[in-house]
Hints:
heterotrimer; A: alpha/beta; Rossmann fold; 2 domains; five-stranded mixed beta sheet; 11 helices; 39% helix; 20% strand; C: alpha+beta; CATH 2.40.50.100; Chloramphenicol Acetyltransferase
Amino acid sequence: MREITYAEAIREALRExxxxxxxxxxxxxxxAAYGGAFxxxxxxxxxxxxxxxxxxxxxxxxxxxxxxxxxxxxxxxIAEIMYMDFLPICLEQICxxxxxxxxxxxxxxxxxxxxxxxxxxxxxHGAQHSxxxxxxLLQVAxxxxxxxxxxxxxxxxxxxxxxxxxxxxxxxxxxLYRVKGPVPENEYTLPFGKTDVKREGSxxxxxxxxxxxxxxxxxAEMLEEQGISAEVLDPRTIQPLDIETIVNxxxxxxxxxxAEDDSKTGGVGAEIAASIAExxxxxxxxxxxxxxxxxxPIPFSPSLxxxxxxxxxxIVEAVRSLLE
Amino acid sequence: xxxxxxxQSIKAQDYAKLGFExxxxxxxxxxxxxxxxxxxxxxxxxxxxxxxxxxAHLYFGEEAVAVGVMSGLDPNDYVISGHRGHGHxxxxxxxxxxxxxxxxxxxxxTCKGLGGSMHVGICPEKNxxxxxAIVGSGIPIASGVGLALKYKKSDRVVVVFFGDGAxxxxxxxxxxxxxxxxxxxxxxxxxxxxxxxxxxxxxAVATNSIAVRATAxxxxxxxxxxxxxxxxxxxxxxxINIARSGGGPTLIECRTYRQKGHGVYDKAPYRPKExxxxxxxxxxxxxxxxxxxxxxxxxxxxxxxxxxEVLSAIDEAVKFAQESSVxxxxxxxxxxxx
Amino acid sequence: xxxxxxxxxxxxxxxxxxVEWLKNxxxxxxxxxxxxxxxxxxxxxxVEAPGEGVLRKKLFESGxxxxxxxxxxxxxxxxxxxxxxxVAVTAPSALPPIKKVEEAxxxxxxxxxxxxxxSPLARKLAEEHAIDLATIxxxxxxxxxxxxxxxxxxxxxxxxxxxPSVTLTEWFKGPRIAKSIPLSGIxxxxxxxxxxSFRTAVPAIITMDVDMENLIRLRENMKTTINTDLSxxxxxxxxxxxxxxxHAILNSALERDEIKxxxxxxxxxxxxxxxxxxxxxxxxxxxxxxxxxxxTIHQLTEKAMQKKLDLQELLGGxxxxxxxxxxxxxxxxxxxxxxQSAIMGIGTTEKRLIILNENVVMKHIAALSLVFDxxxxxxxxxxxxLREVKRLLEEPHTLVA
Lengths: 324, 338, 401
């Protein structure tokens, strides 16, 4: 199977859906002339024209608000919020409007939009350009939250996102943009709410999201050499979250570690840990451990940032602590 | 077309010249009466009967704006409203029964009882697309609707209603700017009723008018007497023409007054008594009715008949709402995601 | 007729007190004229006449407290009839009443002892096996009891039995004791396990004779042609394993009130060591060839003799075979190895005269004795199983095919 990068996979998904349906429109800052801050939408302006690939001013609230309004009229907008750190500016439109319009209207309205965003943790961009905060969106009933970790997952999940019929927050990891992986040529979709078993194992379950999936896989290799068999699970979507697959894995292994780039307190791991404690307490032979970032703003200095970030070594140490 | 125009109150003798026939004028009067009597009944249900609870931001004194704008629009044009939306909903021909049931929280309401007073105007089949409870948030959404309309090469327009307070939010700025740069067919109608809860507009806005802000975005602004439905209709028509000819959005400032408090429980003691009395004299319904009866377009008996028709329809609506049931809780889960 | 109402001026307001009426019954009033003064929880305010007319009735006097909103009077024409005064003091509530659910007092579960640690999985297993957690030594951090610890304790308990309360010498008062061999190590375990089995299982025995001619010949052939010496026991293990595949009820354990059919066929072999009897296990015997089984038996026997067997090799047996043939025993009733449901004994192979097709012939015959736990297995299934074992041994080429 051919191998393409995570970025190319995303671009392909956008492009193929735009070819399929003239109602798909992209809006965001610098996505047209500049080709996207991370070159994801490169050349799409040339192919589809300025009506369908629109540069906006720096107006996050208007970007999301306009996407909502356009979707009420049957247009299918894919909005880009350049950095996840900018999400608070349009959080009002996401949380108060998009997330609730269906419910508040008694089911009359349907907001079918995708908000693509990315996090740049690991690129020394400082506290205001590096944040990964998916659990903010977990608390808001009414939005879907998607976290692809491989090129294969990225393309399949994005196509599903564009067709889901709900407001979808699609969070990319910019450190994964250049990572290559196998992606089929023909069209395929991946379902929301299906945790992917990335690696089978028997001694410990490691649940990881986004960039940490790769770290977890690397950690599993390291653990294998030490005679520890780790099962790596990637939820892919945290809303909806397929907790059953995680429960079944914990039943098998008796141990759970969660690896995430967000900060520990109130992070995604907290939700998963609580759910597992509720449903599978009798199968736990050890406490649940989270490998997450510390509760502090992200330091700029590159070596300090590296220390801040969770990594495969920390996963290995955490897993070993469960077994000794 | 850039710049600012002002449309003052229009004399009754000019109605015929401007193409306003009796049928339209009677519709306007009846609608305004309907809104006023509806709001009176809602106030009674809250305070006197204790049958409805929650917030309610009543439209007393602003009827001419909703009615004038809807009169200028085609029924196929779209509307987005805000928290003070009962008047817009009624003027867009959403049934009183559905609105009343929504206020009572019943499953027969426009939003199945899940939205409440601030969202009664959500009725896509009447092209009333959305009503936001967050001040200003409907503005960027309206720009999105405009974007879709232009993208689909439709000749329809979208109107978004908001108050003077909303014009200071970030959402107002971002939304209008977007519509301006992309020349979207959006009509931004600001109902300047002089107060944002207790904040006087003069203390919140440094310019003499809100309409003048249009020039900052490179779009046309219209300042109109918001207590004259015919003037408001005229202003709306101007904005529609600009939109349809590719001229993009317009900002219309309707000068009017909020006769009662911000919400149904607010007695508005922060307003000077003289100011309130001065504006009560300019009551849009009393004055419009006077214009119509004195120029014999409508007789007093006809006017009275309109009132009793409206009252019995409102009675029906209350009865309907009281007899309807509440959505069972188990049904709610299905309405979060589609 | 107009109702005079004391309004609910804010959602939290519950009552209002009529401070004073400003008008009397019979007074003419204009619309909007102040009729009375009311003191609410936060403010004092006036209530105005809702319309023009005569104040016909006051339902409450000054000083009265009313729940708001409340109808407290009527204004109307003198010729109008007053509405019947069954006025609700409270307006019908807009909200449905909250149902009160009668709850039984909660059962309070005793808190576990301070400082005691066990993993949730360990607790679950301890409960399932009805073993007291407090008696288990924990090997986890801070002495936490883990799954492994519970399982080990369960294994140990299986064999433990209460000793009688009176000593032998007290009971007998003689004879003289020549030698005292402490019951330790393997001997002790054997004694404990067999006692347990004897006390709980309900053993029944059936025996069958097996014509060993074909098997003897096959073994000879293999020795001469391919220089392979496969032990009799290896063939027995294979035959039993195959037969168990079709007769799984004999490959089971009774646990409280469930018969658990094993998913593996692990044949334990009773081996006599200088220290006593041990039963190491040939795992997945049905999936091994006779050659592999033979090799495994050799390894296990050697280790047993050298006391080098580890726990893994002793655990997990699902069926046991005991071969007393080399000692000349013909038929015997071995004791079932708990928690298994059956054990098969192999008797000595000897030449016997039998009647075959109306003729007297001499054949090598060995007796198989099957002891089974009648709580789990009935006679007929046991017989069918043993018959299958016999058939396989009498057609041994099927075992090495």
